[in-house]
Amino acid sequence: MAVVSGDFEVREAETWVAARVPIVGGLELVQTEPWASVFRARVDGELVWLKACAPHQAFEVPLTASLYERWPTTVTEVLAYDLERRWLLVADAGETLRTLGNPPERWREVLPAYARMQAGETDRVADHLEAGVPDLRLSRLPERYDDLLAAELPLEPDERAAMAAFRPRFSDLCAELDGHGIGPTVQHDDLHMNNVFVKDDELRVLDWGDASISHPFFSLFETFRFLVEMNHLQPGDPWFARLRDAYLEPWGPGHLETFELALRLAGLARSIAWLDQREALPPKDRPEFDEGFAGMLRIALRAV
Q1: Strand order across the 196-199 sheet
Q2: Alpha-carbon torsion, ordered 38, 126, 196, 95, to 10 deg
Q3: What pTM was estimated for this model as a whole?
Q4: Per residue in 87-106, pLDDT tens?
Q5: Which of 301, 218, 300 is nearest to 259 (CA)?
């Protein structure tokens, strides 16, 4: 499963990193997953991180690098990258919101900056698609929903039947949402407490490997899901409206209906993205993945 494996390749990576930052010692493997391997090294008492992406996630390197060029205080601080080898060297970003208890107050700080970044990237959609960022624009989602229906989903027969029955309505709702006038842009699609970091009171969004070009408002599906599951906020908790409003402020007035419709569809769009991730996994890793996938599918069905 390792993307970087074997002594020679690790030494090659160490040489590449050392040519860019004065690391002390070698690279330490921290995590290996089918989509990436992550190493860390020390530089003058600080940490730097090397992410080596799998081929199906190669887009994360140019996407992260380009976002950092334009939004240097909002996303991962990129120190160096290698497109051919799919390597991304980034500075340490501190601790996750998870370690702080996933406080909604910090989400109210980061969401407007994230939204401004999304709005600012709408003119660069073609560039991101050319760089390989997955295309989950609303116009494509009905076709991709058919892929979801054709897959061997980890659901009960009655649940699969419910998904199939919803297909015409899904297409109609995608067209309706598209007609609300908010165009596609970069959508992180994994915007939760493990991927927002704080250091010296500065918040950054990391780990863009789940990103796509899609409806921007889909992003808060995961944010809200983790606030329910991890913080045990009830659906009517005032924090959801506060965070919604903080996120929507950079988009201008009049988008409450659009936001609510987007959240209805976001779970199914997320499930389509998960299907792509599942297809990229070795068969032996799919049963474990399907445990979470089944839960995601059921949340998506309840939302619609």
Answers
A1: 95-96, 196-199, 202-205
A2: 40
A3: 0.93
A4: 999 999 999 999 999 999 99
A5: 218
